[in-house]
Amino acid sequence: VLVEERIYGRDMTVGVLGDRALPAGEIVPASKEFDYAAQYQSGGARELCPAPCTEEEHRLLGETALKLHHALGLSVYSRADFILDAEGRPWCLEVNTLPGMTPNSLIPKAAKVAGMTYQELCEKIVSLSLEK
């Protein structure tokens, strides 16, 4: 049996590319809960990128995602998912070592906000991989 405190807050996600955190995104479920329908069914959630949060929250989310990326020994790209609580503290839910990479996935959306095309993102992933 595993018992954990439930953390209430906003569903946030931050991609990491190399040694750089991409802009944070927020997943807003259509219903009260982020459930299977919200994650996998069309219209179940809206993805806001960049996330509507303060500069301090963006900075903290980015720094935390980078720390997790490095602590896990990752080097090319990853995506960390968080709950941002009412006090602005990020609680890590998971780190995705192979996040989705369709043009409509979260990492490409964040890269676009950072000024990268989908092709440039893919080329950067390949070039970082070849450096390893």
Summarize the structure.
The protein is of the alpha+beta class and 132 residues long.
Describe the structure.
- The protein is an alpha+beta fold.
- It is built from 4 helices and 6 strands.
- Strands 1, 2, 3, 4, 5 and 6 form a 6-stranded antiparallel β-sheet that branches.
- The protein starts with 9 loop residues before the first strand and ends with a helix.
- 27% of the residues are buried.
Task: Itemize the secondary structure elements and their pairings.
Blueprint: E1 10-17, E2 20-21, E3 25-29, H1 36-40, E4 45-48, H2 55-71, E5 77-84, E6 90-96, H3 106-113, H4 118-131
Antiparallel strand pairs: 1-2, 1-3, 1-5, 3-4, 5-6
What do the pLDDT scores average to? 91
Q: Strand percentage, roughly?
A: 25-35%
Distance between the amino and carboxyl termini: 40 Å
Output the helix-strand order: EEEHEHEEHH
CA-atom Rg in angstroms: 15 Å
Fraction of helical residues: 25-40%
**Biggest sheet record:** 6 strands, antiparallel
Structural class: alpha+beta
Number of strands: 6
Helix count, per DSSP? 4
Features:
132 residues; alpha+beta; six-stranded antiparallel sheet; 6 strands; 26% strand
